[in-house]
Amino acid sequence: MESLKQRIKKFNADTRMGNERQRIIRWLMGFVLSLFRLALIVGISYVILGPIIGIAFNSFFSNEDAYSPAIYLIPQSPTLERYSLMLTVTQYWKVLRNMLFYISSLSLIQIVVCSMVGYGFARFQFPLKKILFACVILVIVLPAHSVILPLYVTFRNFDPLGILSLITGGNPPNMLTTLFPMYMLTIFGVGLRSGLYIYIFNQFFRGLPKEIEEAAFVDGAGTFYTYLRVMVPNAMPPIITVLIFSLVWQYNDVFYANVFQISGDWALSKKLNTLGNTLSGSYRIIDPNISSLYVYAGIIMMILPMIIIYIFLQRRFIEGVERSGIVG
């Protein structure tokens, strides 16, 4: 009887030791995985943010700091001279005001047009629906550089079906160097990344229950009224997502700005592209090391507006990404 009790006690002790060993192993595995995740996040963050941090600090370098071998990141004699000159060279506040109006209007048009197209694909049946939606996907995957020549020729001599030449009796108008091409493309749903926005709205509207629309139809609401007063208020997550995507991509766009030869007064990115020539030509800043410091200041000035917009909208943006079907 005594030996049985001893065996039971020994078995319980062995069981406790085994459970304790498993808990230690699980804790060690969790700790190692946590360290691995932390190292991975820090490494990726450094790769992405490292150059931006370096540019931000270098933009405060004085001429002496730029040539001092003892200074790596923190300037010894920080100066705002780079930013002061950049405000003048780029006409920053004027161009920023023009650009915010320009990209905001394009973004609002994209939200209206792409949401209506996405709603139509999600809720209605019509001939050639699958083929047309395949064209939307093709717009997403088609490289923009493959349509440079057609876009340039179309707006270089803009005359749809020869109507303008017939009416005026003259040569077709040249729409390059104006904002007309971007507005025209955006209105017809083929603007910058419009295919992606249509897909986002389509995925979201497909996930909404049809009972919402059926209840509105029973109450006598028409299609457009249902879309405007019932579906759009429920579509705030994808609207915020598309708004931020559109603002950022329109703001950073260089491709269409160069193809359509849009003036630098409406595109801050074009001002930065010609900044080196402006500094060397008008301000006699020929030293590449010093010139790069001014360029760094211009880059930070261009990045700041988008950072501010994202800070205010990040919460809704993350929620919109989760609910709009982008990752599903």
List keywords for this structure.
single chain, MetI-like fold, 328 residues, 2 domains, flat, mainly alpha
The level of helicity is over 70%
Radius of gyration: 29 Å
Distance between the termini: 64 Å
Outline = flat
CATH class of the largest domain: Mainly Alpha
Proportion of residues in β-strands: under 5%
Order of helices and strands: HHHHHHHHHHHHHHHH
Number of separate domains: 2
Q: Please state the average pLDDT score.
A: 83
Oligomer class: single chain
Low-confidence parts: none
Molecular structure report:
This protein is an all-alpha fold and 328 residues long. It has helices spanning 2-58, 63-67, 81-89, 92-123, 129-141, 148-156, 163-168, 180-187, 194-207, 211-218, 223-234, 236-252, 255-259, 268-273, 275-282, 288-323. It folds into two domains: 2-58; 84-323, Orthogonal Bundle (MetI-like fold). It is built from 16 helices and no strands. The mean pLDDT is 83.
